Amino acid sequence: MTVGTPGSEIELETSRLLLRPWRVAEAPVQHELWTERDPRVPPHRRIDADGHPTVAELEDAIRTQPVWSTGLLAVERKTSRDVIGYCGLVDSGRGPAAEPELAFELLRRVWRQGYATEAATAVLDWARASGYERLWATVWDWNTASRRVLAKVGFTETDRKEVDALHGTTLFNTRRL
Ligand SMILES: CC(C)(COP(=O)(O)OP(=O)(O)OC[C@H]1O[C@@H](n2cnc3c(N)ncnc32)[C@H](O)[C@@H]1OP(=O)(O)O)[C@@H](O)C(=O)NCCC(=O)NCCS
Fold this sequence. Notes:
Bound molecules: coenzyme A
Number of strands: 8
Strand order of the largest sheet: 1-2-3-4-5
Protein name: N-acetyltransferase
Number of domains: 1
GO molecular function: acyltransferase activity, transferring groups other than amino-acyl groups
Organism: Streptomyces triticagri
Largest sheet: 5 strands, antiparallel
Structural class: alpha+beta
Keywords: Transferase
Low-confidence stretches: none
CATH class: Alpha Beta
InterPro entries: Acyl_CoA_acyltransferase (IPR016181), GNAT_dom (IPR000182), N-acetyltransferase (IPR051531)
Shape: globular
């Protein structure tokens, strides 16, 4: 594992995957993730009626978002060299300060092959090496696959929940590193 320092590029390696910063040319993969999102996901996380975000807007975001001690890394398969989604850490502001959230999302065609679990395990090692002592993860109550991944990598549910009558209940999970 290469831990990020200013000027160096982060790269996490597992048996099947490489996790590293997004490249501008991979914006179409991000766009595909946006188009595939479950209709229960809130509108600000889905392509709007005017087609935003566009591929060009996602390209701009990749150009301007540096990855250092947190960030969402592109997940690349080592054998086929294709990018299948992301996994990483976000400073969402929803947990205590200095305790980021684990996040992951993969293209539907690769689901149920253990990739999210494998990627998340590498990100936990990255977080530990970066000096974090605890992580959070928020998940909709209806998101069985994500809840299962979080349980597999050692997260436990806390008492904290946020109820949204429209989209479901957000469950707060945590894991000590
Ligand atoms: C969550 C997500 C990343 C999981 O990716 P994945 O590579 O399929 O995950 P894994 O294969 O590592 O593990 C999935 C687990 O959930 C289980 N699972 C998947 N779908 C399920 C379902 N509908 N019902 C019950 N279990 C399910 C799988 O059987 C597996 O558990 P197991 O190893 O005990 O059999 C993927 O579903 C996704 O991108 N979802 C949309 C984005 C998202 O929800 N992100 C998380 C936001 S909190």
